[in-house]
Amino acid sequence: MTPTPVTPESILYAAELLRQGQLVAFPTETVYGLGADASNPEAVARIFAAKGRPADHPLIVHIASPEQIDDWAEDAPDSARKLAHAFWPGPLTIILNKKAKAISAVTGGQNTVALRIPANPVALDLLRAFGGGIAAPSANRFGRISPTQACHVAEELGDSVACILDGGSCSIGVESTIIDLSDEHPAILRPGRITRSKLKAVLQTDVRLSSKSQIRAPGMMAVHYAPNTMAMLCPAESLITMIDELCAKGKNLGILAFSPAMAETPCEHLIRLPEQAENYETALYSALRELDNLQLDMILIEQPPENEAWAAVNDRLGKATA
Ligand code: TXA
Ligand code: MG
User: Fold this and answer.
1) Which end of the chain is less packed: N or C, by CB atoms within 10 Å?
2) Domains defined along the chain, listed by start
3) Residue 117: closest CA among 61, 44, 165, 58
4) How many angstroms separate the CA atoms of 198 and 212, rounded?
């Protein structure tokens, strides 16, 4: 499936495809989504078929305005409205107790629903043109690296999608932060660009890092976001030695590094990522995908710092190298 350039006409066409129960891949500020009409169980079933994803894994419902929270969620707490006000449109997904409109094909049979307003003009135009909620996971095959460009979606999903809207590269590049507000203790189910400190500052209360059952957020499973090539995290101090040893054994290596010292490393497939956490985050998936496509023996990844700014990166790298 060749990506479609974004025009007012192609947005209307994509909205019409959604109404017909077809799948439309679209850009968000985080990663590309694989969208279907969230109110149509057959359309939603197509998402799971296209991704090869187990049907009990719930999907995020993307909406166009905060007023739509109450269409999908029962008794949404003030905390949800505060977060929506502070961070939407933006890379935050809020889990709330669901209303009947959130069908079990979308919620994976749970009594909660995940909601988000994406901060991407194409996504917002599509949501407005369509009018309803768009259920959308990341537009990759189950367990694979999330797509941050339209060509990645084409690579992942081929013709199982009716249209891929090409909105260029995603500005954030990792999936949204997920916060669970379905009970009185807010908990982060997946770290993202909206950090725990930012959430705490708005909520004026503690926000836990979740210890909830893994199945509730398959993004939390060990083997998620994984490249096909074996990937390994390596502290900067030992990276050079490691590269030397493996090269001496004739291994064909890919390297993902960010510290300036690594720029001199004699390795053909070295991608130097930005030193700043958010810029690194934005570039990560496409770099990982590029190395993964080279049929290398192994990808060595320089271990980033262990602090909050790097939480989303460390979470994804942990999974990519599990
Ligand atoms: O940035 C994003 O969130 C992207 C873009 C397209 O919006 N979407 C995305 O979707 O990453 P997906 O399906 O790859 O990841 C959504 C995560 C999954 O781990 C899913 O289990 C979790 O959200 N989730 C959805 N509904 C949930 C619910 N009711 N309770 C707990 N987790 C839920
Ligand atoms: Mg995903």
Assistant:
1) C
2) 4-209 (3.90.870.10), 231-320 (3.40.50.11030)
3) 61
4) 21
Which residue minimizes the CA distance to atom 6 of ligand 1? Answer: 33
Q: 103-109: list long-range contacts, CB under 8 Å, 24+ apart.
A: 103/38, 103/39, 103/41, 103/44, 105/41, 105/44, 105/45, 105/55, 106/38, 106/44, 106/58, 106/59, 106/61, 106/135, 107/58, 107/59, 108/55, 108/56, 108/57, 108/58, 108/59, 109/56
- Please name which of 20, 72, 83 lies closest in space to residue 46, comparing C-alpha atoms: 20
* Pocket residue to mutate for ligand 1, from 57, 59, 122, most atoms within 8 A of Cβ: 59
CB of 189 shorter than 6 A to ligand 1 = yes
Averaged pLDDT score across all residues of the chain: 94
Whether 105 and 134 have beta carbons less than 8 Å apart is answered as no
Q: Which ligand is nearest to the CA of 145?
A: 2
Residue-wise pLDDT tens digits, 212-228? 544 455 555 555 567 88
| Cβ of 149 less than 6 Å from ligand 1 | no
Instruction: Report how far residue 153's alpha carbon sits from residue 140's, in angstroms, rounded to the nearest whole number.
Output: 6
The tens digit of pLDDT for each residue in 70-109 reads 999 999 999 999 999 999 999 999 999 999 999 999 999 9
Partner residues linked to 187 by β-bridges: 180, 208
Atom of ligand 1 nearest to the CA of 33: 6
Contacts of 248 (CB under 8 A, 6+ apart): none
